[in-house]
Amino acid sequence: MSSLGRRSKKVYGKIASLDDLKQWVTDFGAGLGVDVETFSSNYQGAILEFIHESAERVDAYIINPAGLTTVGEGVRHALEDTGLPVMEVHFSNISANAGAARGLGGGAINSSFTHTATGLSMGMRHYSYAAALTALTLGLDDQDFLGAEAD
Ligand SMILES: O=C1C[C@@](O)(C(=O)O)C[C@@H](O)[C@@H]1O
């Protein structure tokens, strides 16, 4: 994701850098009245440390597992252990066939995050984050859904 600006414009759209993405998501959250804390790293251990140290102070996670999508068991497990809602997001539609407009060039991949995620938002460029953030906000405000006390 640190190479966002060099990726296919057709799939990833006009967001030119991770900093731009973080700002866009933060601004979108502010519009919803939500504080967004952003984090990114190319190092799996750093992602694990962030999840561990943030679990007590956040309400939920939105994760784009990017290059870890098919292999990030440690990160997936750490997220599951927080007991918090987790939305998986992707710019691309990772389930699309090869050659599809917003799919990955090589065709569908199987995410190792989806089976324990609360929800999934993908194929909508950076708007996938907007969908995830909106759904999480509504869900957490709903006392019969994500806003309910954890079991
Ligand atoms: O780095 C990425 C980005 C991605 O997660 C997306 O946002 O579409 C899709 C992944 O397959 C890829 O490795």
UniProtKB/TrEMBL annotation:
Assembly with partners or alone: Homododecamer.
Q: Which reactions appear under catalytic activity for this entry?
A: 3-dehydroquinate = 3-dehydroshikimate + H2O
- Quick one: which pathway? Metabolic intermediate biosynthesis; chorismate biosynthesis; chorismate from D-erythrose 4-phosphate and phosphoenolpyruvate: step 3/7
Instruction: Give the source lineage, highest ranks first.
Output: Bacteria, Pseudomonadati, Pseudomonadota, Alphaproteobacteria, Rhodobacterales
UniProt site positions, description: Transition state stabilizer: R7
Similarity comment? Belongs to the type-II 3-dehydroquinase family.
One annotated GO biological process: chorismate biosynthetic process
| Annotated catalytic residues | Y12, H90
One GO MF term: 3-dehydroquinate dehydratase activity
Alphabetized Pfam families for the sequence: DHquinase_II
- EC assignment: the record states 4.2.1.10
The gene for this chain is aroQ_2
Q: What class of enzyme is it?
A: lyase
- SUPFAM superfamilies documented for this protein: Type II 3-dehydroquinate dehydratase (SSF52304)
Q: Residue span of the signal peptide, if any?
A: none
InterPro entries per the UniProt record, alphabetical: DHquinase_II, DHquinase_II_sf
Q: Which UniProt keywords apply?
A: Amino-acid biosynthesis, Aromatic amino acid biosynthesis, Lyase
Q: What is this protein called?
A: 3-dehydroquinate dehydratase
